[in-house]
């Protein structure tokens, strides 16, 4: 009957649940989910585990239901005949209960039957039952007063549970989706229903960070600033004694890969204050009101942990200037920003919470965010200079297994001289590529050659040995590069040449690598010489083959850019005068020029003239040195790569003095190494004053090594 059906269904459900618990939880927790299982096998009840609690409750519930159905007194089924002869005739029936118009429960007088308290039988319908009962009474000749009473009742036998199963399943499924789905996941891995959307996703950094300050190099000034913030929090007295207020925060800005995030990580790894980190984009969600709520929650968390440091990476996601059109998520972003402004400097002033932020684009940030009182300091981390690069190389050479003949310091200096303009991330990449190249050829250690190849690869892209050039094409490329090299060699302000190659790499067919000076100001003459050098390739093609190719496109683009910049931005044209306009950046749309048509015409004319002059001068030079270009071109065709020594051999010494080694570059700058000393007041930045002296001395040791 019904009960057995239910029984089966519950067994099935229980089995399914166990199954889900077994596989589902195992996957979710990635092995850790079995933790409670192994603990339980050891005889320990892991009540602190959520999964275990869920399991226990489910198992207990299902078991009790099963027990109920199994052990409740269900009586014995009998037939009508048996009822009449065995019970009715013998007068042991106390009363008859017609349940749900389906069956009749025969309640016996106490002691009437040893087996059970009652028996039951099915009936077709109540009418027939009544008629049959009447007939039986007549037959047995029972007096109406002796007849058993008939009661009608409705009882639930558990079938309502069955009808509720689909609803329950649906409800459970929805709950599951809410918890595990995108809504619930809003809170970064934490279990949370739709009601925890406003919870901040900020994470508290614990001791699991391996980055230390000694891993960050080449940005000493920024490092000192950050150390100072830690010191503010540790020793506020040092500053307050002199009447100074503690700054609220700092923005770290600079090009990609210069070490902003790394610096923050190092702070988290080494500072003895709580470090909370969050990503700017985590405030933006498709639901209205979530961003501000998260900001509020994050600051509440910070205040609870004060004194502490809060780091918001890529803050431009929320900190964009307000008022830039009110469409889409714009107003939500503005609300988030407003909340941030209020939290940083509102009535609920966050005492002893220092906010650091990182961004590539400080120019798009809202001015209100950048004003003193919020982000008091703007720390620019630019591409490192030559000393900085040497230090960064030392950091990234540390884990690499070098050839025993190589001196780490000397190598770092040499590489620093050969990689102008590289950022920290580029340098890390060079070191890694060198090791990869060495490993590819099964070398036991990494040598200088591998580093050279790595630099080439990072600058030019992958070498394409399989690309076959037609002989004529190859010749054109060789003379083109030779033209660049010769012009560079004989012009005073051109950059010293490092290498010429006609092996195709990346997109280019050949390249000449120069060593740009570490220079921040360029004179008009210097820019002019550079333009000539860039035109050298095209001119050489013209002189030798009397035809020009598409190979010079990149050069021409650079020439044009330089020429326009000189006229429009740097005010270097006499006719246009001392004015400077913004040139449109790549990908930007220009709707309106900031100058008149007449000026535009004048600018174009000046640019044309400038390029023309450069071309004429280059043409003259190439014609004068035709045999030399020929020589270099031929040698290139032979060997494919020429370096400086080859050039010296072919052309004789360069008529101008030039700097090429690390020592040349750093000469006159005071020291050979980056200055990493700390100011007096920051000596024990990570300690509270008055801490035990031995702790102090240990940090001082650390300082001297960083
Ligand atoms: N100053 C540095 N010293 C040592 N390594 C550096 C330095 N700068 C960058 N690196 C290397 O480059 C990697 C990327 O740096 P990081 O993530 O800090 O860049 P970022 O400035 O945050 O860039 P983005 O603006 O793109 O976020 C680091 O993991 C590290 O290996
Ligand atoms: Mg970063």
TrEMBL record:
Segments traversing the membrane: 52-71, 160-178
UniProt keyword Oxidoreductase, yes or no: no
Ranges where the AAA+ ATPase domain occurs: 246-385
Swiss-Prot/TrEMBL catalytic activity: ATP + H2O = ADP + phosphate + H(+)
Keyword field contains Signal: yes
Membrane topology category: Multi-pass membrane protein
GO cellular component, one term: m-AAA complex
CDD domains membership: RecA-like_FtsH (cd19501)
Keyword terms of this UniProt record: ATP-binding, Hydrolase, Membrane, Metal-binding, Metalloprotease, Mitochondrion, Mitochondrion inner membrane, Nucleotide-binding, Protease, Signal, Transit peptide, Transmembrane, Transmembrane helix, Zinc
Family to which the UniProt record says this protein belongs: In the N-terminal section; belongs to the AAA ATPase family.
NCBIfam families assigned: FtsH_fam (TIGR01241)
Protein name: AAA+ ATPase domain-containing protein
């Amino acid at each position: 009957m019904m009960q057995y059906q239910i029984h089966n269904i519950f067994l099935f459900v229980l089995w399914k649940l166990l199954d889900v618990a077994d596989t589902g939880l195992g996957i979710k927790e990635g092995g850790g989910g079995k933790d409670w299982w192994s603990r339980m096998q050891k005889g320990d009840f892991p009540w602190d585990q959520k999964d275990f609690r869920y399991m226990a409750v489910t198992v207990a519930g299902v078991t009790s239901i099963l027990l109920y159905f199994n052990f409740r007194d269900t009586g014995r089924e009998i037939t009508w005949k048996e009822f009449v002869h065995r019970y009715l005739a013998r007068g042991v029936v106390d009363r008859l209960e017609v349940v749900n118009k389906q069956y009749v429960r025969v309640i016996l007088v106490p002691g009437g039957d040893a087996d059970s308290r009652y028996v039951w039988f099915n009936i077709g319908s109540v009418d027939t039952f009544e008629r049959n009962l009447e007939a039986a009474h007549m037959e047995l000749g029972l007096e109406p007063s002796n007849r058993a009473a008939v009661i009608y009742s409705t009882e639930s036998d558990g079938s309502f549970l069955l009808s509720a199963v689909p609803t329950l399943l649906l409800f459970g499924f929805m709950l599951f989706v809410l918890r595990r789905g995108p809504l619930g996941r809003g809170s970064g891995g934490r279990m949370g229903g739709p009601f925890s959307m406003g919870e901040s996703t900020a994470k508290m950094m614990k001791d699991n960070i391996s980055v230390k300050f000694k891993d960050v190099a080449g940005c000493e000034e920024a490092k000192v600033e950050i150390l100072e913030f830690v010191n503010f929090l540790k020793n506020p007295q040092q500053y307050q004694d002199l009447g100074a207020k503690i700054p609220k925060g700092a923005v770290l800005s600079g090009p990609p890969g210069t070490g902003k995030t790394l610096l923050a990580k190092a702070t988290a790894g080494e500072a003895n204050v709580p470090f909370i980190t969050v990503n700017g984009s985590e405030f933006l969600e498709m639901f209205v009101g979530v961003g501000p709520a998260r900001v509020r929650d994050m600051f509440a968390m910070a205040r609870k942990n004060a004194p502490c440091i809060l780091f918001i990476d890529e803050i431009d996601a929320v900190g964009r200037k307000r008022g830039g059109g009110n469409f889409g998520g714009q107003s939500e972003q503005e609300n988030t920003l407003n909340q941030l402004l209020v939290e940083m400097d509102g009535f609920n002033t966050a005492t002893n919470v220092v906010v650091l932020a990182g961004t590539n684009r400080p120019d798009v940030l809202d001015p209100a965010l950048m004003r003193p009182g919020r982000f008091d300091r703007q720390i620019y981390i630019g591409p490192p200079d030559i000393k900085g690069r040497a230090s960064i190389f030392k950091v990234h050479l540390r884990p690499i297994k070098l050839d025993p003949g190589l001196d780490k310091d000397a190598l770092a200096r040499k590489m620093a001289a050969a990689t102008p303009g590289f950022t920290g991330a580029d340098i890390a990449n060079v070191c890694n590529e060198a090791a990869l190249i060495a490993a590819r050829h099964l070398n036991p250690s990494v040598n200088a050659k591998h580093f050279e190849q790595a630099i080439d690869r990072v600058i030019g892209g992958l070498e394409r040995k399989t690309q076959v050039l037609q002989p004529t094409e190859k010749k054109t490329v060789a003379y083109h590069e030779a033209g660049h090299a010769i012009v560079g060699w004989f012009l005073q302000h051109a950059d010293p040449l490092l290498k010429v190659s006609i092996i195709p790499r990346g997109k280019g067919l050949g390249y000449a690598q120069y060593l740009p000076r570490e220079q921040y100001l360029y004179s008009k003459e210097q820019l002019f010489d550079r333009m000539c050098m860039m035109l050298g390739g095209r001119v050489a093609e013209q002189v030798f083959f009397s035809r020009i190719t598409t190979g010079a496109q990149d050069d021409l683009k650079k020439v044009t850019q330089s020429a326009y910049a000189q006229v429009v931005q740097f005010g270097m044209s006499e006719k246009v005068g001392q004015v400077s306009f913004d040139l449109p950046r790549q990908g930007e749309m220009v709707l309106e020029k900031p100058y008149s048509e007449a000026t535009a015409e004048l600018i174009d004319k000046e640019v044309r003239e400038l390029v023309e002059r450069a071309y004429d001068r280059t043409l003259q030079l190439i014609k004068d040195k035709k045999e030399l270009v020929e020589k270099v071109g031929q040698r290139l065709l032979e060997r494919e790569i020429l370096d400086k020594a080859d050039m010296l051999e072919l052309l004789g010494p360069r008529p101008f003095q030039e700097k090429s080694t690390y020592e040349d570059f750093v000469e006159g700058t005071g020291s050979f190494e980056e200055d990493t000393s700390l100011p007096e007041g920051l000596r024990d930045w990570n300690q509270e004053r008055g801490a035990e002296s031995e702790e102090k001395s240990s940090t001082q040791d650390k300082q001297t090594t960083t």
